[in-house]
C-alpha cells in the first residue's frame, strides 16, 4: 500500500517545480545585488557558507522584524506560483526557545493600495539547525497590480541569517477535465470487485427470488463535527438523527479541549465529553479526540499562564494522564497539539524551555493508550499552502525519530469563492510524499449562495475523495447551531423541531449516501449462479429474498483485493461454516409470578454461552426480557430472565450453549439505556474481531419490540415500545478461527396470542442464538427447538 501511494505521489508531484525561474540571482552567486535584491533596513553581503553553489547571502544589521532581502517579480495576476528558499540562522534571539522566519509577498494594486501576505513559513528555527527550507505555494491576487515583491523576514531584529537557493516558478493551471480524472481515480482506488456465488434451493421459484446487495458502511471515513451537549439533548432529536444517518465518524468540537475542561485547574469536567462519547459509541460512531492541548496562547488555560516552567510541565503531565487515561479505548484518534505551525502554537515549548515537548507528548500519550492513532492538525494547508513545506519537514523528522505519529491532520476552512482545486492538489501532493495518511479534519466552505455552496462542496469532496493520500474527511461547521452568522458555511440550520437540511446539505448527503455507496438488486438467472459487481469499499449485507421477504442474509467486508463469498437459500447442500460447532439449549426452572421476578440458567461444563432468550408460559407479553448475567455463587455466566408487571404466569430463561472450536471465546456487554419513546433504539457494539452470536433486550416496564443483530455493524440492537423508560441492549460477542455468522428471518406470525413462526438454518450452520422482534411490541418470547434447529417465536396481540 505504501508503495502504491509513493508511486502515485511521484506521478503527481513531477510538475510541482516547473516554468521559467522568475527570481534573479536566487543563488547569490553574483555579489552585485543591484537590479535584483535589495535589503530594507539591513545589510547584505556574500558568504561562502552556502546551501548550494559557491555563495549565499548574509543578512545582518537588521533594524526591524520585517528587515530582509526583497526582490520585485514580474508576476501575472491570478497565476499560481511555487516558492522555495533555504535559510540558516547565525544567532538565536535571547530568551526564546526558537524563532520563525517567513517569506512574504507584497502587492501594490493599480489603485495604489498595498497588500501583504505570508506565502511560506519556516517555524521554530535555531542556529544549530543548519540549513532549513522555507517554502510554499500561493496564488497572486486576481487584480491589476503595479508590482509584486517577495521578501524574507520575521525574526527579531537581533537575529542575523543566511539565505540561499531562492526560487519562484509558475505552476500551470489544471486542465478542464480535472473532475473526469478525479472520478476515474475514485473508480480505481475507492472500489473493488465483489463476487457472490449463489445457490437457490429448488423449492424456490426463481421468478420470486431477488438478491439485494446493500452497502451499510463505508471503508472511507466520512464524518462531521458535533457539539457535546447537543448530541445528548432530548430536544435535539432531528439533529441527532441527522448525525447518525449521515456520519460514521465525528469530532467533538470543544468538550475535550484543555481550556474547556479546565476553566479553573479544578474541578475537571469529564462528564460533558463522557456523556457525548457514550452516546456516540452506543450508535457505532467512531470519534476523533480534539485535542489534548492547543499550544496557541489564546487557547491555553489562563491559570496555566501564571505557572513556572516546572509547574507547567507537571500540569501538562496531569492533563495527558487524565484525559488520555480516562477515555482510553473510546477514541480512535487524538489531535495532540493543535496548530503547532500555522497558529504559532509553540506556547508549551516557550514556557517549559523544552524545544521537544510536543514530541514528548506523542510518546507519553502512546505509552498510555498504544491503540489510539495520533495526529498533528494544521490549517493554512489546502486553503493557503504557506505552511505545507514546513509541515512536511516536521512530519519527516517525526518519522526519522520513530515517533508515534500516525497521520496528518489538514483542517480545510476554505474561503469565499470557487474552490482552488489546483491549490488543493499541490498541497496534498506534497503531503503524500510522506507516506502517512492525510485526514481532512475540519472541512467547511463559504458561500452566501446555498446552491453554489453545494456545488463547491461537491467539487472539493470529489477531488479529496479521489486523492490516494486522503484517508478521511470530517465536515466542520455543517450546522449553524441556531446562529444566523454561520449561514454561509452550513449544510443545515435550526434547533429542535426547526432543524432542517438545506440544498447544500442535501447535495452532500447525496454524495455520502447515494453516489459513493453501492446498492443493487438483481434476480438470479439459475439456481446456481454467480453475481459480479464493482462496489465501493465497506461493509455489506447480502440478502436473498423470496416474494420480498428475507430468506437468508450474510455480511461481508469489501476491501483491497476484492472478496468472493457464497450464499445459499433452501435445501441444497452447502459448505459447513460452523467448524464443528455444536449447540444445545439449557432451560431454567420457572420464575415466580410478579414484577421483576428473576430466573436464571447456566451452561453445562465445557460449554460457552452464545445466546439467551426467554418465554412467558402463558404466551402473554408481561415479561421484562433477559440479560447475560453472572452468578457469583457458582462463579458462572447465566442467562437471566425477568418476569414483568401484570404477569399471570412464570417466565423461563433459555441459554444457548455451544462447544466446538478450541479457540471459541465470548464476551458479554450491555449498552446505555435508550431514550424513552416508541421505536427508540439502544445499540451495543462487539469488539473488533468478534460477531454478535446472541442479542437480548431488557427494560423495567415490559414494553419493548425486541432485539436483533446487525452483522454489518457487529452490534446488537434493542428497540423500545413505550414511553415510561428506555431499553437496554445486551450482546454475546464471540470469536473463533473460521467462525462466520449469518442472520435468518422468519415470516411474520399470525396476529393472535399463541401464534408462532419459525425459521430454519441452512445445512452446515448451527443456531447460536435467537430472539423475537415485532415493531408493534407484544411478544411472548423465543426459543430454539433443538431437533429441527428452528427458532420458534410466540406472539401476543
Task: Report on this structure.
Helix 10 links the parallel strand 17 (373-378) and strand 18. Helix 12 packs parallel to helix 13. By secondary structure, the protein is an alpha+beta fold. 46% of the residues are buried. The strands form eleven sheets. It has an eight-stranded parallel barrel, surrounded by five helices. The longest helix is centred in the middle third of the chain and has 18 residues, at 309-326. It has 13 helices and 44 strands. One of its GO terms (biological process) is polysaccharide catabolic process. Residues 1-19 form the signal peptide. The active site is at residue 442. Residues 210-523 form the GH10 domain.
Question: What attributes characterize this protein structure?
Answer:
3 domains, 18% helix, disordered N terminus, 797 residues, 13 helices, Jelly Rolls, hydrolase, repeat, alpha+beta, carbohydrate metabolism, eight-stranded parallel β-barrel, 44 strands, TIM Barrel, five-stranded antiparallel sheet, CenC_carb-bd, GH
Strand order of the largest sheet: 13-14-15-16-17-18-20-21
| Radius of gyration, whole Å | 31 Å
- The CATH C-level class name of the largest domain: Alpha Beta
What is the CATH topology assignment of the largest domain? TIM Barrel
Based on Cα principal axes, name the global outline: elongated
Mean pLDDT: 91
The domain count comes to 3
Give the oligomeric state of the chains in this entry, treating copies of one chain as homo and distinct chains as hetero.
single chain
Number-wise, the strands total: 44
Question: What percentage of the residues does DSSP assign to strands (E)?
Answer: 35-45%
Helix content: 10-25%
Please, how many helices? 13
CATH architectural designation of the largest domain: Alpha-Beta Barrel
Largest sheet: 8 strands, parallel, barrel
In terms of per-residue confidence, which ranges show pLDDT below 50 for 5 or more consecutive residues? 1-17, 572-579, 786-797
Question: Which class do the helix and strand fractions yield?
Answer: alpha+beta
**What's the name of the CATH homologous superfamily of the largest domain?**
Glycosidases
Distance between the termini: 56 Å
Pfam families: CBM_4_9, Glyco_hydro_10, PCSK9_C1
Signal peptide: 1-19
Keywords: Carbohydrate metabolism, Glycosidase, Hydrolase, Polysaccharide degradation, Repeat, Signal
GO molecular function, one term: endo-1,4-beta-xylanase activity
Amino acid at each position: 500500500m505504501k508503495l502504491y501511494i509513493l508511486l502515485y505521489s511521484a506521478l503527481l508531484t513531477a510538475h510541482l517545480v516547473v516554468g521559467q525561474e522568475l527570481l534573479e540571482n536566487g543563488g547569490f552567486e553574483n555579489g552585485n545585488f543591484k537590479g535584483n535584491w535589495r535589503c530594507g533596513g539591513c545589510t547584505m553581503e556574500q558568504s561562502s557558507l552556502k546551501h548550494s553553489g559557491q555563495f549565499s547571502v548574509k543578512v545582518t544589521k537588521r533594524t526591524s522584524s520585517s528587515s530582509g532581502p526583497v526582490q520585485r517579480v514580474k508576476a501575472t495576476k491570478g497565476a499560481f506560483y511555487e516558492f522555495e528558499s533555504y535559510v540558516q540562522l547565525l544567532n538565536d534571539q535571547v530568551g526564546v526557545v526558537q524563532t520563525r522566519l517567513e517569506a512574504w509577498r507584497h502587492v501594490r494594486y493599480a489603485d495604489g493600495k498595498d497588500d501583504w501576505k505570508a506565502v511560506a513559513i519556516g517555524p521554530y528555527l535555531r542556529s544549530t539547525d543548519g540549513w532549513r527550507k522555507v517554502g510554499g505555494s500561493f496564488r497572486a491576487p486576481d487584480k491589476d497590480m503595479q508590482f509584486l515583491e517577495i521578501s524574507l523576514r520575521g525574526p527579531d531584529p537581533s537575529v542575523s541569517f543566511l539565505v540561499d537557493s531562492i526560487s519562484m516558478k509558475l505552476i500551470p493551471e489544471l486542465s478542464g477535465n480535472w473532475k473526469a480524472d478525479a472520478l476515474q481515480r475514485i473508480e480505481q482506488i475507492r472500489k473493488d470487485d465483489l463476487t457472490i456465488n449463489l445457490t437457490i434451493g429448488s423449492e424456490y421459484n426463481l421468478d420470486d427470488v431477488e438478491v439485494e446487495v446493500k452497502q451499510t458502511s463505508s471503508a472511507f471515513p466520512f464524518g462531521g463535527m458535533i457539539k457535546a451537549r447537543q448530541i445528548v439533548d432530548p430536544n435535539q432529536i432531528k439533529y441527532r438523527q441527522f448525525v447518525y444517518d449521515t456520519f460514521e465518524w465525528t469530532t467533538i468540537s470543544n468538550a475535550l479541549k484543555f481550556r474547556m475542561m479546565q476553566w479553573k485547574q479544578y474541578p475537571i469536567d469529564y462528564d460533558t465529553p463522557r456523556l457525548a462519547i457514550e452516546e456516540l459509541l452506543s450508535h457505532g460512531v467512531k470519534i476523533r479526540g480534539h485535542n489534548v492541548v492547543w499550544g496557541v496562547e489564546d487557547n491555553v488555560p489562563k491559570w496555566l499562564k501564571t505557572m513556572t516552567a516546572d509547574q507547567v510541565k507537571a500540569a501538562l503531565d496531569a492533563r495527558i494522564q487524565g484525559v488520555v487515561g480516562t477515555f482510553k479505548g473510546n477514541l480512535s484518534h487524538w489531535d495532540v497539539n493543535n496548530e503547532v505551525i500555522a497558529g504559532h502554537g509553540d506556547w508549551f515549548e516557550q514556557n517549559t524551555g523544552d524545544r521537544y515537548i510536543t514530541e514528548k507528548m506523542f510518546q507519553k500519550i502512546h505509552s498510555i493508550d498504544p491503540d489510539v492513532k495520533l495526529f498533528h492538525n494544521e490549517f493554512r494547508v489546502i486553503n493557503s499552502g504557506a505552511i505545507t513545506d514546513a509541515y512536511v519537514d516536521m512530519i519527516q523528522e517525526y518519522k526519522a525519530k520513530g515517533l508515534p505519529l500516525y497521520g496528518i491532520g489538514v483542517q480545510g476552512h476554505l474561503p469565499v469563492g470557487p474552490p482552488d482545486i489546483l491549490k488543493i492538489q499541490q498541497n496534498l501532493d506534497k503531503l503524500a510524499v510522506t507516506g502517512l495518511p492525510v485526514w481532512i479534519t475540519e472541512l467547511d466552505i463559504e458561500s452566501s449562495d446555498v446552491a453554489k455552496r453545494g456545488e463547491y462542496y461537491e467539487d472539493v469532496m470529489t477531488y479529496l475523495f479521489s486523492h490516494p493520500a486522503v484517508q478521511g474527511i470530517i465536515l466542520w461547521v455543517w450546522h449553524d447551531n441556531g446562529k444566523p452568522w454561520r449561514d454561509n458555511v452550513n449544510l443545515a440550520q435550526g434547533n429542535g423541531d426547526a432543524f432542517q437540511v438545506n440544498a447544500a446539505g442535501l447535495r452532500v448527503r447525496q454524495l455520502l449516501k447515494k453516489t459513493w455507496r453501492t446498492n443493487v438488486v438483481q434476480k438470479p438467472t439459475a439456481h446456481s449462479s454467480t453475481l459480479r459487481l464493482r462496489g465501493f469499499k465497506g461493509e455489506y449485507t447480502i440478502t436473498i429474498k423470496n416474494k420480498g421477504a428475507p430468506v437468508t442474509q450474510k455480511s461481508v467486508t469489501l476491501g483491497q483485493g476484492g472478496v468472493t463469498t457464497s450464499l445459499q437459500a433452501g435445501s441444497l447442500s452447502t459448505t459447513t461454516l460452523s467448524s464443528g460447532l455444536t449447540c444445545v439449549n439449557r432451560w431454567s426452572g420457572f420464575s415466580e409470578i410478579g414484577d421483576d421476578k428473576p430466573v436464571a440458567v447456566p451452561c453445562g461444563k465445557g460449554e460457552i454461552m452464545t445466546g439467551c432468550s426467554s418465554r412467558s408460559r402463558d404466551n402473554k407479553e408481561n415479561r421484562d426480557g433477559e440479560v447475560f448475567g453472572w452468578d457469583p455463587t457458582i462463579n458462572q455466566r447465566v442467562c437471566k430472565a425477568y418476569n414483568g408487571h401484570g404477569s399471570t404466569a412464570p417466565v423461563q430463561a433459555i441459554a444457548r450453549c455451544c462447544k466446538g472450536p478450541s479457540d471459541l471465546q465470548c464476551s458479554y456487554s450491555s449498552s446505555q439505556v435508550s431514550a424513552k419513546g416508541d421505536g427508540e433504539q439502544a445499540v451495543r457494539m462487539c469488539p473488533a474481531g468478534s460477531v454478535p452470536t446472541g442479542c437480548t433486550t431488557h427494560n423495567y416496564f415490559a414494553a419493548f419490540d425486541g432485539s436483533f443483530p446487525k452483522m454489518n455493524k457487529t452490534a446488537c440492537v434493542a428497540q423500545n415500545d413505550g414511553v415510561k423508560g428506555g431499553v437496554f441492549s445486551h450482546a454475546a460477542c464471540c470469536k473463533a478461527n473460521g467462525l462466520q455468522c449469518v442472520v435468518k428471518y422468519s415470516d411474520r406470525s399470525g396476529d393472535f396470542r399463541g401464534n408462532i413462526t419459525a425459521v430454519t438454518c441452512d445445512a452446515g450452520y448451527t443456531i447460536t442464538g435467537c430472539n423475537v422482534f415485532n415493531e408493534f411490541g407484544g411478544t411472548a418470547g423465543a426459543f430454539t427447538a433443538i431437533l429441527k434447529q428452528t427458532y420458534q417465536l410466540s406472539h401476543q396481540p
